[in-house]
Amino acid sequence: MPEPKPVKTKEHFLENDRRKTWMLETLFENFLWSSRFLVLFAVISSLLASLILFVIGAFDIVKLIIDLVNAGRGTGPAMDLHGAVLGTIVGSIDIFLIAVVSLIFSFGLYELFISHINAADNTESSNILEIGSLDVLKDKIGQVIIMALVVKFFQFILVMKMENISQMLIFAASVGILSLALFLMHLGKKLSHHND
Length: 196
Known about the structure:
Elements: H1 10-34, H2 39-73, H3 81-114, H4 134-159, H5 165-195
Helix pairs in contact: 2-3, 3-4, 4-5
């Protein structure tokens, strides 16, 4: 006589369903966690953008040196040393600052989403690359962007010709507002370090 099959209780079915739910949940969570590697597209793109900007900035400086040498030898057109030369140098600094923003962005995204950069631990580099959260990344990028805007303002001022009193007043107000912005940025940095 065959043995009767054991009766499956409600608890048995619940436990079986729970196991399937856990397995599905685990698979989805593994997939979701692995999807963070999509950030590598942004990291690599930002690195390439930074490299391109550094090359453009360096190219502008090299071209300026060649033009200066040609102007000095008399084989090229005469150059306005105060306007064109200083404007090109300040423009290159602005490009370099934007390249640094892109570089910091790529380092920050990699550290936040992929892995800590172990190679940075063995160097005595600046702490600008120590990024623990999106807020820290945003603050660091914001500071560099503000400096890039300051440099851009300086470049604009170099070529500006003030012909009447209203333009001089606008210039003075712009310098005052810029100074206030830099002061507030420095004060905010000081207060955040004090609170830490």
